[in-house]
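Thread title: Can someone regenerate the structure for this chain?

I was given the following input by a collaborator and told the matching structure tokens would be attached. They weren't. Posting the sequence so someone can regenerate them.
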Amino acid sequence: MGTAGRTVAIVAAVVLALVATAAITMYIRGIEAQAFDDAEMVEVFVAQEEIPEGLSASAASEAGAIDRADRPRVSVPDGAVASLDEIDGLVSADPILAGEVLVRGRWADPGDARATGVEIPEGHEAISVQVGIPPGVAGFVQSGDQVSLIATLTGPGPDAEDEDADQSDETRTQYLLQNIQVLAVGQRVAGAEEGDDIQEGTGQVLMTVALEPDDAERLVFAIENASLYFTLLPDDAEPAETPGRTFDTLFD
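Best answer:
Regenerated them for you:
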């Protein structure tokens, strides 16, 4: 056999090997597909996005981080959540990954130290605030960090009680709280109202901080009435003395 004949034989052998491999692959996939088609399917609840440790089941569900899905019964883990009522009032005991089937054992009472994973300083309270990625320092904040909070609020100006003064509202930006201890941080993607789809690009940072009661009230008022920006502080940072900014003092 000449060189040309050997080349043709080699090419033919390679082609036959590829065809055989493809045929075997298709056969195996066909068997797998048939097995799943014949399997009993059951409804389970699946994490659509990562659920951070300490997040309540209700908050995760409202955010669109939990959805129903059908799975073959043979692949469903023991203790799979069959109804969200089973975990109502509970929080995730540790992070739950996207695509993971929810299991009752991964949820615990909020009073369980392992579930909350935070130690609240004496005289303080834990409170969570949800902000967008940029106001949340682009996700760089971690548990144990120190942050400060800047609020922008529109309301009556400083001379509002003066009958002869201009009664127009004033927009002011200023530090509201400084050197806040961060207890926990979780990042998730919030769901939208359009069907059951998860809307990408709507990331939110869920930050849990320790505040004294008076400051907790101030934070809640700001959440309800102002726009918020957090800043991440270096170690041993001292509170900053700033006058705040309005339209009149922005460039001072």
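Residues 187-202 have pLDDT under 50 and may be disordered.
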